[in-house]
## 1
Amino acid sequence: MQAKRLTDELSVSAQLTVPEMAEAKAAGFRSVIVNRPDGEGADQPTFTEIEAAARQAGLEARYLPVETGKVSDEDAAAFGALLATLPKPALGFCRSGTRTATLWALSQAGKRPLDEIVRRASAAGYDLSGVAKRIETGGVPVDRSAEHHDVIIVGGGAGGIAVAASMLARKSGLDIAIVEPADVHYYQPGWTLVGGGVFQAGDTRKQMSSLIPHGVRWIKAAVAGFDPQNKAVILEGCRPVTYEKLVVAPGLKLNWAGVEGLEETLGKNGVTSNYRYDLAPYTWELVKNFRRGTALFTQPPMPIKCAGAPQKAMYLSCDHWLRQGVLNDVRVEFLNAGPVLFGVADYVPPLMEYVKRYGIDLSFGHNLIRVDGPAKRAWFKVSGKDGESTIVERAFDMMHVTPLQSPPDVVKASPLANEAGWLDLDPATLRHVKFPDIYGLGDASGTTNAKTAAAARKMAPVVAENLLRDLGVLDEPRAAVYDGYGSCPLTVERGKVILAEFGYGGRRIPSFPKWFIDDLKPSKAAWLLKERVLPAIYWKAMLKGREPMAKPGREVLEAAE
């Protein structure tokens, strides 16, 4: 825990964990204020978890969630009122501490001199110069004498870092900045294997600072908005940075709050999810200790990241129970909001063989809407063929939940979004359809490809080459194009994988000859690829600008008349 003192009454911090509540108490704090909305990050505990730990440590906890870049005057007033009533000293936190510091600064308008407010924030490591005018006048002007870069990349996930590395591998010395607030980068495809007892959680994380390519400027801040007309990205604190070219790759939003009661029971009462770093180990604890009862596995409406992940967790669990000789005492049900087991029809028959082997009950059109963890009950909205819907109840002893997923709020509310809220991109070139200086890739894309790391691996060189063409660095008359490639290594048992590879329209695109890996059959070779080869490719190739089997295609030029 690294608390930064603003006043005798308030210190601020980046995201705190459940164990750090006891540390906060030991450090002399008497209350905590949480300003980060639940579900904003993959490794973020919910307020319910923080509140329980705080109470156990003897701290009072309050929840005042504020979205990045959307600190209103009402939020600031509420923060001031909260601080006035809580036992002090108080410790406030969000993702980086900036929102909490901004709330405090705005709450002090008229109570402290402006220079003192800015100085105290600066001494704590928070640059609030972007809101200084607002503190003084109540307005929200944007200073256009902004930091500028030739290329700004929003997002330090798989897509963002891969694009930067890919560009630099083709042309060194480029002026590139990555905007990313997180300190840690995760290899999220590994969480399936954490939940299956194959990987340790620590195997799937590295410090962000170790992955930002050399020569790239890391702007450690969250994005509050996009201003494509002025070629600017607005950071939290109303600070703009301007660009010649922009790449948007912020990932997607996991909406844990979209299911009533889910946040309160995650990580206990037998409710888990491999979609969160800190919960994947709990999945394995549940699986290895499970001997009898009902296990439910859920999948929400599409689109979701790695659409096969909900069933991967189920198959690995069933395989363990089969090996332990307890599967006959376990009832397994897969409750899918969609109408089919898998979106690419060719892979359904081999998957159905495992459904039969494990005795899994399939329930389609079942969308999880409510969970009561202590009572071990879950409710699903069931869509009927006639358009009518009913609510059904299920009892469980263990439940693996896949959360609802949506575009990031900052994208959904921006001019960059399509009608569904995703990035409005040309599916081939990945250029924005309205703003030619903007490209996008990864999970926030409105293209119809699968939202997987494998897709980002193929998208990155397409974006990199097209950006370099636009900048006049790459002498290539044809644009690079993306064919919608995505891959889903379906872990149907420990030691075997069905390597599903496909592109736009559900067209199968196998990468290997059938004698090595037949994509329609479970394979030991594909398991080795999933367990050993793909993590190494991710860390040592994709994020380093090396692109084995990822060369982009080219647009077809019309013949001259």
Note: Residues 138-142 have pLDDT under 50 and may be disordered.
## 2
Amino acid sequence: MHGRLKVRTTEQEQAIKRKEREQKVKAYKAAMGRIMKIRGNVELNDEMLILTREVLQRNPDIYTLWNIRREIFLSFKKEKSDEEMGKLVDNEVKLTENCLMNNQKSYCAWHHRGWVLDLHPEPKWTRELALCTEFLKQDERNFHCWDYLRLAAAKSGFSPLKQFELSDEKIKDNFSNYSAWHYRSKLLPLTHPDPEGNALIEPRQHSYELGQVESAAYTDPNDSSAWFYQRWLLGRDCSVAQRQPPKPLLCWLGPHKAIVSFSKHSRLAPQLFVDGQTVEGEWMMESKYVWVLKHKIGNVDLIKKAEVVTEGGRLELQPSSIGLVAVVAEDSQEHNQVVMDTLKGQLKNCKLLLTLTPDCRWTYLTAVFLMQAIDVRLFHGETMEFLDKLIQLDPLRAGHYDDLRSKYVMEFKLSLMEGSFGVQESVSLSQCHLSSLYHFNQLALVREMCRKLDLSHNCLVTLDSMPGLPALEWLDLSDNELTKEPGRVDKNLRNANLTALKSLSVQDNPCSDLLDIEDLLQTLSFK
């Protein structure tokens, strides 16, 4: 009053909004009721197009309505001329554009747009590229739009090199654009393949990409987008080793059985030749990395020459105290020299960056990956220190870092043993901070030969990853973190097939009470 504007109270505003919502819900129910009635009568007509259009413009995420419109357009395709069909599709494309203006991340609208354009007699896919560019200007991380861009590029013949240049522009605009980095990773194998076919990406371009990541990291070390892209560049997918066939690491020929262990998943069975003749029998894949052959050779000591042939090479077996064996150390050099020099430079710069931002977990984590890629042995101590630091900086992910530690400790020990780890009768993994058991593909003969296994003073919570150990006589699991969950420990030990076990220690564990493993004790025959 007296010339002052009346301001609505909160209660009044809420009442108005509630009334508006009620009206919208009423209109929506009425429209959906009419649509379902017509749909029940199997009437695919213009009225259905109008009704579904009205609802979709308000809410483009009702997938059922888009499906109804697709049914109508498929019926039109049988009846209409190309000219009529072109006009109908143009109108449908405008509808999807209006819907995307309301919700740029509507999966249904993007999908329907691509689908309906395939019905157009003369689809203008190049226009779609321009549309994607405009939408990406508004939201550069709209992954729905990036997916549609890939479709439009393929349909319009937009070359991978042009798409690669687009990803360049988007990254230069904002290096925090994770979608652009991901898009780039899909294009690199097409635009810059390794001419020798050894790796996924040409070495010099690989080094250039790592340099791009480094520039982004120096700009903002705490931004994760570039770090994730670098992890992909450093991964096995891009390495020389990934393009090479599975390499046999260990071959053993003993009485009645032969075992071949590989560096990675081997889908092809090996071949065993003894004194120039193929050994008969069926090879069985025991795991992704291990093949086993049961044979009928009597005395292996009488064999003059034995060799195993795989897609990754040929190995001649040599006599030993446990049969005929061939052991090969796994090559840790997964990258070529050009990339390796770049990795060393990046590690140096990561350490320099840590002097400027000493609490950046991404820099520590990247340094760990770099050290593992360069030299497992040389940087083992420093890798462990960095993982300790990561646990301090990022305690919510301590389990992940403990898991990495377990993996890297096993790789370090295997590198020291030069592949002979698996042929020892006594294996000690005590005081290694292990939370999981990794790389048993390289310890295939532990199953056959190991009599004594020391896993004491670690951080093992479960034994889920323990392999079958029928020859094991002495097992020390003391001072771990084995779970109190009823029956869990004895179930894991049963799965390990410990038929020869004579001594077992689980003291200083949450499950150290003998009642927790009473059934197991009754089953096993201790001497």
Note: The chain has a mean pLDDT of 81.
